[in-house]
Amino acid sequence: MPSDPIDLHPFDQATRVMAEGSRLTGETSDLYWAFVGPFGGATAATMLRAALQHGERRGEPLALTVNYCAPIARGGFDIHVRLVRANRSSQHWSIELVQGDEGVVATATAVFAERRPSWSHQPEAMPDVTPAEQLPSLPSDRFSGWPRQYDFRFASGGPHFAATLNEEAADARSAVWLADSPPRQVDALSLSAMADAFFGRIFHVRGAIVPFGTVSMTTYFHVDAADLAAEAITGLLGVADAHVFHKSYADQTAELWSPSGRLLATSQQIAYFKA
User: Is residue 93 included in any domain, yes or no?
Assistant: First the structure.
């Protein structure tokens, strides 16, 4: 990573983790702001970066679970990283994001694994959608904060938000080409953020912006750094859907595909809504 923050991509600046003696610190970015706090994907990437930078870390990201315990205020925070258990092929880490008098505002567990050559099989196929270059970008001036940091090109299930709720529930599924804006090569950090870079499914189903927030999100990584470097992509296809909305909570699933049809990551989350 460049030492001068001016040289950093906005995503890398927003998820930067600095060592101050025995402390790890970070700071929120207004560029990646959401309703009442930072974009959850940026928080996930920041916590993953803290573990990736730890001197005892071995292997590649395999799974990351982030629990959003309380709103994160603008400003600085500390990150505590602890190796819980290690064996020959994997490591299990505990991560806490701590902010001032609020104490712990987010927790995470991360699993890293040594990926070795093996038999490979991908029974799932990438959805057949219109290529990204044939689709228009979602106008960024429709939004503020974190959505402006991505190029969204919806192949299906685009946003149609109104001032009032739909009388009938619409489809929860979206297929959208995603890329950092400005472009940035996809890596494990951007995958951890892009897994959350979908508008809440409740927005699509009810057709309006309602109070919403991710409570817990788990992302599974199906490729390593060498796989991603071999493709050298700056954009991917994201597919998001939901199974159930009930008593103020809903699930959300996500798939992240390379343009070549490789499944890079999958994600599941549980989110609060009020509608």
Answer: yes
If one counts the domains in the chain, the total is: 1
Does any domain span residue 48? Answer: yes
* Cis check: omega of the bond before 117, within 30 degrees of 0: no
Q: 59 lies in which domain range?
A: 5-114+131-273
Which residues pair with residue 94 across a beta bridge? 82, 109
Q: HSE, CB side, 13 Å, CA atoms: give it for residue 249.
A: 7
Q: Give pTM, 2 decimals.
A: 0.95
Output the domain CATH number for residue 176. Answer: 2.40.160.210
Q: Which two three-digit tokens encode residue 129? A: 């959608």
Q: Is 120 domain-assigned?
A: no
Tens-digit pLDDT profile for residues 129-164: 999 999 999 998 888 899 999 999 999 999 988 889
